[in-house]
């Protein structure tokens, strides 16, 4: 524990050593992440660790922390280690079966709510490729009269989304299906949401290690040009949107013009776009003509 001044079994010593390990592994903010993991292992708050850095770490917590540290040093995402991630106003269970909800994707929720002059106009919601259920559940949380269906090709994802609905008190207004996009869906919806795979196939292995190694390729790989999922979605959206309905799609950097062209060719009208926290066009809103 070179460079760590606190005694060997203390909170401070564990944080110091973990910070060194994570820094050597190329993890950003290593001390902050060490605090998150140790507080998780000790079932306490981060501020409790800072209050008494010389406090001993119990043996069971030390073992749990050591395993978390080992996994994080391989760049396994923190959300997988903790089993949860925050999104919008919700706390969601996560697993390797789905993408981890990210703050930039909240632009989809913002765009969806802004697309209707009266939020109560949103009654029926469809989420294609629902993953954790993040998009559908966030909209339902904001629209108490709405109900929705989430569809995912992965059975584990659909089951995870259902658990998240129950955990957030939304199970009565949300149903989840395992299916191939909208193949099992009949009916029309006021709002269709989707965060489809949009990374070019060749670029998937070049993503940050947390993503390339640990998140499902099925949810990332959008084909040679990254647009395969949009081609499919534009083919089915006209039959899914109710009169006055809107679809809100997540798009990748530099894809807005190409996806708008696909929408136009399918008889859909792009009506708005919203940028994410980094100023990148992230949410595209389209409607039937």
Can you walk through the features of this model?
The chain has helices at residues 11-24, 30-42, 46-51, 59-73, 78-82, 106-114, 134-142, 155-167, 209-214, 228-236, 256-265, and strands at residues 84-87, 90-93, 124-128, 147-152, 174-178, 189-194, 241-250, 268-275, 281-288. With 289 residues, it is α/β, with parallel strands linked by helices. The chain has 2 domains: 11-74; 85-288, Vaccinia Virus protein VP39 (Rossmann fold, 3-Layer(aba) Sandwich), CATH 3.40.50.150. It has a 7-stranded mixed sheet with strand order 5-4-3-6-7-9-8, sandwiched between helices. It has a two-stranded antiparallel sheet with strand order 1-2. A hairpin with a 5-residue loop joins β8 and β9. The model has no long low-confidence stretch (mean pLDDT 94).
Descriptors for this entry?
11 helices, methyltransferase, 9 strands, 289 residues, 2 domains, EC 2.1.1.297, single chain, Rossmann fold, peptide chain release factor N(5)-glutamine methyltransferase activity, two-stranded antiparallel sheet, seven-stranded mixed sheet, alpha/beta
């Amino acid at each position: 524990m070179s460079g760590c001044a606190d005694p060997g079994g203390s909170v401070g010593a564990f944080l110091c050593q973990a910070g060194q390990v994570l820094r050597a592994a190329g993890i950003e903010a290593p001390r902050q992440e060490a605090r998150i993991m140790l507080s998780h292992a000790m079932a306490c708050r981060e501020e409790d660790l800072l209050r008494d850095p010389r406090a001993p770490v119990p043996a069971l917590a030390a073992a749990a922390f050591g395993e978390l540290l080992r996994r994080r040093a391989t760049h396994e995402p923190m959300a997988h280690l903790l089993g949860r991630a925050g999104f919008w106003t919700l706390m969601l269970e996560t697993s390797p079966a789905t993408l981890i909800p990210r703050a930039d994707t909240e632009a989809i929720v913002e765009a969806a709510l802004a697309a209707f002059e009266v939020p109560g106009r949103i009654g029926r919601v469809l989420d294609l490729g629902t993953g954790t259920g993040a998009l559908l559940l966030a909209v339902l949380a904001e629209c108490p009269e709405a109900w929705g269906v989430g569809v995912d090709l992965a059975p584990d994802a659909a089951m995870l989304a259902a658990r998240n609905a129950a955990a957030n008190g939304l199970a009565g207004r949300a149903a989840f299906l395992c299916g191939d996009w909208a193949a099992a869906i009949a009916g029309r919806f006021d709002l269709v949401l989707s965060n489809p795979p949009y990374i070019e196939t060749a670029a998937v292995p070049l993503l940050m290690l947390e993503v390339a190694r640990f998140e499902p390729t099925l949810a990332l790989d959008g084909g040679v040009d990254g647009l395969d999922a949009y081609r499919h979605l534009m083919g089915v959206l006209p039959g899914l949107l109710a009169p006055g309905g809107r679809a809100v799609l997540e798009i990748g950097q530099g894809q807005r013009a190409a996806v708008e062209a696909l929408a136009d060719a399918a008889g859909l009208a792009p009506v708005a776009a919203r940028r994410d926290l980094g100023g990148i066009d992230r949410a595209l809103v389209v409607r039937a003509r």
